[in-house]
Amino acid sequence: MSLRNITYMAGSNQFTGKLGFILVSAAAAIGLANIWRFPYLAAQYGGGTFVLIYLIFVVTLGFTLITAEIAIGRKTGKSPLKAFQSLCGKHPLFTKIAGILPVIISLLTVSYYAIITGWLLKYCLSYLTNSGELLAADNGAFFSAYIGGSIEPIIWTLVVFVISAAVLCFGVQKGLQRVCIVLVPALIVCMAGLAVYVLTLPGGIDGLLYCLVPDFSKFSLDAVIAAMGQTFFSLSIGAGIYITYGMYLSKKENIEKSVHSIEIFDTGAALLAMILIVPMVFAFSGGNPEALGSGSALLFEQIPQVLTTLPNGGMVIGSIFFLVVFAAALTSVFSLIEVPVSAISLHFSISRKKTLALICSIAAILSVLVNFGYSIWKDVTFFGKPILDALDSLVSNALMPVAVILCCILVGWMIDTKEITDEIENDGQRFRWKKFFVIMIKYIAPVCILIIMISNIIAQFV
Q1: Cα–Cα distance measured from residue 461 to residue 238, given in angstroms and rounded to the nearest whole number
Q2: Is 41 in contact with 293 (CB distance < 8 Å)?
Q3: pTM recorded for the entire structure
Q4: Which residues contact 311 (CB under 8 A, 6 or more apart)?
C-alpha cells in the first residue's frame, strides 16, 4: 500500500469498526430499488415464491460479488481506478477499463439518482407543512406537472448535492459513518412502525398474505430472472462502492461476517418495504393487486392518493413515509459520490475537499441537463424514453453488468483466487464459504450476470 493511501485512510478516512462499516455499506444498498421495485416484483411473481427465490440469490450471488469487491478494496488499499491494475499488471488495458467503469457508473448514476432524491425531499416537506393533499390532486397529475413545468425540481436536486457535500467533507469516519450510524437504524425502525400501522387498516392483512404466501402457479423462468436482477440492483453491485469501502476497512475485521450483516440489513429493508407498501395499496384499492405499480408512478402518484384516505389526509403517515424514503435515497447518493471522490483524490493527489467540490459540481451540471428531459428537452428521447429513463437503462442494463463480469473474470481467471481468499482469511480468520465462493466467482456469477444483461436488453426492444 502506498504512503499516499496510508495517509489518505488515516484518521477520519477509515471506519472505526465493524458496525460503522456494516451500516455505511447497508446504507449504500438500501435505496430506491428496495422500495419502489421489490414490492411490485414480489406481488407480480407470487409473493412468497419470489421472496424465497430472491433470498437464495442474495446469499449466493449477492454474497459472492460483495465479498469479492470488499476484499479487492481492502487487499489493494486502492480505489477502483487502481485496484484492478494493482492486482493484475500483466493486462493493463483490461484492468484500466475495469477500474474506470465503476467510477463512471457512480458519476452517471448519481446524476439522475439525485434528481429523484430531490423529488422525495419536495414531497417530504409538502407533508411536513400540511400541503400533501395537493400531491394527490387530479389522480396524480401533480407529479407530471411538477417535474415538467418549473425550475423547482432543479433547486431541490442542488439542495441534495449541498447536503451530500456537507456530510462527505468531514470524511468517512466523522461524516459518512456518523450520519449512517444514526440514519440506518432510524430508517428501519420507522419502516417497521409504518408497516405495523398499515396492517391495522381494513384490507391490510389481506395485502400481507398476498405478498408473503407463496403462489407457486406464478413460478417461472421470468420470476427467477427478475429475482436475480433485483438482487444485483438492490445490493448496488458494480458501482465500485464496496471496493471503495473495502479500502477503508481495517485488516482485523471479518469480511465474511460483515457481508452477511449487510445482506441482512438490505433484505430486511426490502421485506419491510414490501410489507408496508403492498398492504397499503391493497387497503386503498379494496384488494386489487393490479393497483400496485412500480417506480416513480408508485411513489409519486399512487402513494399520495392512498395517503388521502388516512386520518388527517395522511399528513403524519405521509411525512414519516417520505422522510424514510428520502433518507434511504440520500444515503445512496452519499455512496455514489464517495466513489469518484476517493478515486480522483487518490489518483491525482488532490485534497478531498477540492475533489468533493469538483465531483459535486460535475454531477450537479449533469443532473440539470438530465432534468431538462422533462421540461425544455421533453421531446428528446432515446429508444422512446426520456433522458433520465434512458440513462438509467444504460447504466443498469449495460454498464453495471459489464463491470461485474470484468470483476469476475479478473478474480476468477486472471489472478489466482487464492489472493482474494487469503485476504478474507487475514489474521487467521476462517472463510467458511471459500470453496463455494471460488466456484461462484469463476463459473456461476458471470453466467448469472450475463443472463440478467441479455434479458434486460431484450426487454428494452420487445
Answers
A1: 24
A2: no
A3: 0.92
A4: none
